[in-house]
Structure formats: C-alpha cells, structure tokens
Input
Amino acid sequence: MTAITVLLVDDHLVVRSGLRALLGTQPDFDVVAEAASGEEALEQVDGHSPAVVVMDLAMGAGMDGIEAIRQLRQRNNRQAILVFTTYDSDADIVRAVDAGAMGYLLKDAAPDEIFAAIRGAVQGKSVMSAPVASRLFQQLRNPNEVLTPREAELLSLLTEGLSNRELGQRLFISEATVKTHLAHIYAKLGVETRAAAIATAIRREGMR
Amino acid sequence: MTAITVLLVDDHLVVRSGLRALLGTQPDFDVVAEAASGEEALEQVDGHSPAVVVMDLAMGAGMDGIEAIRQLRQRNNRQAILVFTTYDSDADIVRAVDAGAMGYLLKDAAPDEIFAAIRGAVQGKSVMSAPVASRLFQQLRNPNEVLTPREAELLSLLTEGLSNRELGQRLFISEATVKTHLAHIYAKLGVETRAAAIATAIRREGMR
DNA sequence: GGCAGCATCAGCCAAAAGGCTGAGAGACCA
DNA sequence: TGGTCTCTCAGCCTTTTGGCTGATGCTGCC
Output
C-alpha cells in the first residue's frame, strides 16, 4: 500500500511543523510539500500532485484559502481538499463547501480526528469536526434562523458601526424599517443588543 | 551549559507540536511541559519551574493568557513569559506587557526570531516581533491615543457585546465608571458609539 | 384564491447609551 | 511639594435603542 501524499498550506510555520510532526507519527501519510500562501499552494499542487491538500482559510497576504480551493477545483485535479482552520464561522463553512472543500476541521481537533479526516477524504468521504457538523445541522433544521438577504445586508452595515438613522439613509428605508429588521436579526442570532449582534456577526458569521 | 527549560501553553495541539519540533532543532532548548489552558499552565509551572513560558493569549475556554500571566507574576517566580499569538492588537499588547510579559511574538515569526526571543528572555531582555515593536513605537509618539490597561480590558469585554451594567458587574465597578471609561475609549478610537468602537476594536485592534 | 414570507412603515413606551461637568483617592515623578 | 495620570464615582439631560402591536404591498407557491 502506498502512502497518502499530503500538501500542507498554512501561513504559520509552527502550524505546518506541528501538522508535519503529527502526520509523521502515522506510517500511511507522506507530507510531500508545504505552502505558506494560496499562490504557493497552486504551484506545489502542480509540482507534487498530492492526494490531499490540508489548507488553512486565513492566509496573511494575497490569495486566501477559499479562493485557492476554488482555483484548485477549476483545474479539475483529483486532490481532496480539507479545510483546517481556527474558527467555525457559518459563513466560512458555507463558502468553503461551496468552493469545493471535502472536509472541515478545527485546529483544536484531536489527532485521531485529523488522521481519520485525511484517510476519509482520499476515499471521497466528507469529514468535519463536531462543532462544524452541528452548525450545518442546525442550519438545516431551523431555516428560520437563516438571515434573509436584506437582513444580511443590514447586518453587514451594522458591523461598520452605523446608527439606525445612518442605516436607513444608506439603505433608503425608514428608521422604523431598520428597527424591524434589527429585531428580526436579533431574534435569529439569539442576542438582545446591537453590540452583541455585531460581536456575533463578526465572530460567528465571519463578517469583517 | 544547561539547557533552557521551556513550557508551551497553547490550546491547539498542532501549535504545541510545531513549537516543540522547532525548538527541538536547537540543542540549548528543552521543552519540559505543555499546557492547553491557563489553569494547566499554572499547574505545569508549579511542577516544572521552567525558565521560559511561551504562551498564547487566546485560550478556548477558561482562564485566558493575560490572566494566566498575571497570576504567574503574582507568585513572584522567575519565569520569563513570552507571548506567542496570532494578532498584534494594540490592546492585547498593552495588557500583556502590563500583566508582566517579557516579550511579544507573532505566530508568523521566523524560527530564528523565536529562538532569539527565548534566549533573550532568560537574560532579561525584551524581544518582540517587528510589527509589534512598530505599534508600540507609534503609540509612544502619540500617547493620547494609547488605551490604558483598564480601558483596554474594558474594550475587550465590550467586543463580547456586554451592556454597561454587565461591564460594571464583570469589572466590579459602577456603571458610572464604565461610562467614563467608554467616553475615553471613544475619544481615543475616534468613534462616537459603542457599535463603532466594537467594529474598530475587532478590525483595527484585531480583537476577537 | 388564499397563504406564507419578505420588505416596508407608524406610534408608543421603557430602557440603555451618550455628553457634560465636577470631584476624590492613589500612584508616580520631577 | 506640586503636577500629572489613572481609576473611581455622581447627577442631569438628550439621544438612541429596543419591545410591542399593528398594518400595507409584493411575490411565490399550492
């Protein structure tokens, strides 16, 4: 049996080293290359054709992980792409899956979880960390908690620190309507104040 | 010459593994323990008395890095504490230094930079990543815009969406005092509402 | 045709936040 | 000793926000 070839993509050297060390404990993994950016990732895939790409989403500069996934998919190569990131933002999950990721792991995942995800990915299985799965599940169960386009638009502006009046002016609606939207957004996010909504939006929804 | 004993504190296994692998390449480092939380860090320091503690600030649950640093300092042990984190937030830097950190490194630092920082720390030298140093430098130039430790602490809690009352309860101060601090924070950040302050804090200060 | 969801708006009221002024205690420093 | 900074608190007033109820027009769907 041949080893599973892996490409590590993360802008932090320590994370790459850590993953390399962890994967090195397993006989069936072979880390053939590393990349510190989206651009580098594309090059390394061309050079090494790894079976699995383990990729962080937040890259310091240049192309981010989502865009790198999208471009890898467009070349219709056969790599399985696993997202390996710190935050389980709803928005990031949706965007990564949409771009073509096979799995979604969080950085605090246990080693066995990581190993299983990589082995599963080469067999075409989707594997994700429990918190990620639970988020997706919850979204499917309660579509009521999904923001409407208009609400999402308003929430996005909200995270820029605008007042109700400013929101109304920006969106060409009355302040009353702004308040109605806000009440709905608060209910869906499970918060009671605009401050908490902003905090939740930026942290959980990945808006920034 | 005896090796420099090191304790690694980070809630992510991969980061600890990565650091361990990196430091393992240097003959004068000896990673004697690891901890995944602030509480664990205190225990491990008691058990191993490392010369240097390399600590992340953001810990998943429980005591965060800042609080761990503060408690370590209160025991007047001799460990040099190095912050090793992802973001160079002004507020975090101020709070970490105030709590008693010897140095401040970013996770994308080069290995040599990390090695030098640890070796410097045991000799009582303060070492920090270039971006961190540049932020501190800029702060020295316009001291009016520098948040005091208390203000930074409050701003940090503010980004969690707390109300003035909750802030007061959390910090054991009156609501009046909270409002005073907020007014100062707004002036320093150049904003007029708490929403804008949160937005600015998370985006510009890197808080999350 | 009716029903559900979405976006729009109004008015009323209570609570929260923000602007302003003033002030005391403790730390630090020249 | 005096000045400055930080942290603490109070009162008063205006503005903003949030909760509630109710309503209209539009669209898509069964």
Observations:
- Residues 1 and 157 of chain B are 45 Å apart (CA to CA).
- The first strand of chain B starts at residue 4 and ends at 9.
